[in-house]
Amino acid sequence: MAVRLSSIAALLLASAALLGAAVGEKPAAPSSPDLRACTDAGLQAALATVVERLGLAPAVEKRRLAVALLDVSDAAVPRLAMLNGDEMMYAASLPKIAILLGAFVQAERGKLVLDEPTLASLNRMIRNSSNADASAMLKKVGEATLLDILTSPRYHFYDAKAGGGLWVGKSYGKAAAYRRDPVAHLSHGATAFQVARFYYLLDGGFLLAPNLTRQMKDALSKPGIHHKFVKGLESRGQVRLYRKSGTWRQFHSDSALVEGPGRRYVLVGIAEDEHGGEWLARLAVPVDDLIESRHAATAAPQAAVR
Q1: By CB neighbour count within 10 A (0-12 exposed, 13-18 middle, 19+ buried), where does 110 fall?
Q2: Which of 70, 84, 120, 254 has its CB 3.0 to 4.6 Å from that of 228, i.e. a possible disulfide?
Q3: β-bridge pairing 188-190 and 167-168
């Protein structure tokens, strides 16, 4: 049973936090649920059915398609489903979200100023997938510094023992990779699980202070490229996306926090196929239907009681 802090205890905790700030210590980030413990058998079965109906089950079996779906319509009870969720795959520009995180962490540390030109550059990097801005921002953050952030206990976005995660080991230009990931030897890689976890932690305020969180989410809003999840969900009215995608040759990826009436979820897809972009566009609507129907079914009895 959860125990509420008394007003005195709460005051003491607040005073301690202020004291820590006064001596230059950052308060500990709020604890977040272990998403691996939030796997939902019903959602897992439903996601597998959607993929099978789309004819994409063979791609999953061959590990050429990874999908993660995280239902956060009830923020207190996240529900996770994954297909190849821990498969490390080449994700093209999707890992630019890691550079975005690195920039804001460095800003938090006082080592990077989030002035108007910097924020505009971050927006172009995410919304329009500018390679020039991504490479310039990576240089500002520091190549080694970014990998330290991704593998740090605080963020833990890459773990070789758990399949990998978010990785940036090369600028977004012609330069050679400076450090490939230890699991799959990729220059720009990701697992669907860790990308979904990124959106969950950002949206829940577990990554950074509230003002920095708002600015990070703003960069992910207003997608500038109309394909994949954006194209798939264009027919859905009143749907808002915070999104980053990636495309290079036969490698296609997309990721989004989707907000709509009665539903809120994170969807991540990473594919290796010349038709991968079409796969992801086709996946978006049935997944949206799935989440919407699950919550409509649970809301109906409550409405009848009122």
Answers
A1: exposed
A2: 254
A3: antiparallel
- Mean pLDDT along residues 39-59: 98
Instruction: Output b/e per residue, 199-211; b: 16+ Cβ within 10 A.
Output: bbbbbeebbbeee
Please give the span between the terminal C-alpha atoms of the chain, in angstroms, as a whole number.
29
Place of tokens 């989004």: 256
Say how many C-beta atoms besides its own lie within 10 A of residue 34's C-beta.
7
* Identity of residue 185: H
The model's pLDDT over 95-105, given as tens digits with 9 standing for 90+, comes to 999 999 999 99
Alpha-carbon span 265 to 99, nearest angstrom: 23
Full strand arrangement of the beta sheet holding 79-83: 79-83, 65-71, 263-272, 251-260, 240-248
pLDDT exceeds cutoff 50 at 14: no
Q: What is the pTM of this model?
A: 0.88
**Kind of pairing between the strands at 240-248 and 188-190:** unpaired
Of how many residues is the chain composed? 306
**CATH (residue range 40-168+177-305):** 3.40.710.10
Domain borders along the chain are 40-168+177-305
